[in-house]
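Re: beginner question about structure tokens

> Can someone show what the tokenized structure looks like for a real chain? I only ever see the sequence side.

Sure, here's an example I had lying around. Input first:
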Amino acid sequence: MQSLILGIIQGLTEFLPISSSAHLAVLPRFFNWPDQGLAFDAVLHLGTLLAVMVYFWRQLVEVFLGKNKLLLKLIVLSSLASLIIVALLKSFIFRSPELIALNLIFWAIVLYLAERYHQGLNKIKSNTVKKSLLIGLAQGLAILPGVSRSGITISTGLLAGLSKKTAVEFSFLAGAPLIFLAGVSSLVDFFSAGNISPYTITNLDLILGLLMSFLSGLAAIFVLFKVMEKIGFKLFVWYRILLGILILLWL
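And the corresponding structure tokens:
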């Protein structure tokens, strides 16, 4: 049951700008579950990676076939920038409820300001190399629970002058390599060590978690594009702030 629920939450919160890591860290505390561990969280990311591949299959086929070399270049540059930041911050990760709450609130405000003041109409063109690097550097900060990978990359894209649609699309595509690396690394750890959390994780747990994160992740992508077109990101901004306050009061 825990794997099933966490899979659903991972899929929904990975693509919505509300921080999947915050929810995966906080939910076990609310339900009095043992912490599933960072590695299991990363395994669930493989389900959301599959959701990205299904939704953006046309763009990904063009990239892999060499038909869109510019997009491939931008994704690679962004991913390398992210990996540098992740390597620098990896040893500083800890799941303090207070830190998670503050990250939720602070980066919610950044998202609000980014949407309010952005004037972006740009698509992915050759002059966006610097912007892709900025997005990649920002994406690396999402290793800290509560920041939100999609939230910070969308915010950076908006502040860099990209349109909402382009910022969201590039956020998903640029995150795919990191999601893949994190998921594969954790799968290797799981099958080599046999246990990646304080309690035993079975193959059924993994299958349920991956399946639910894929289905809910695919639904979340559709929802984000619809909500973005109609009301923007304000709903997510208020949700993050309220969740941050709730965490500070209860945990």
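Each token stands for a local structural state, so reading them left to right follows the chain. The radius of gyration is 17 Å.
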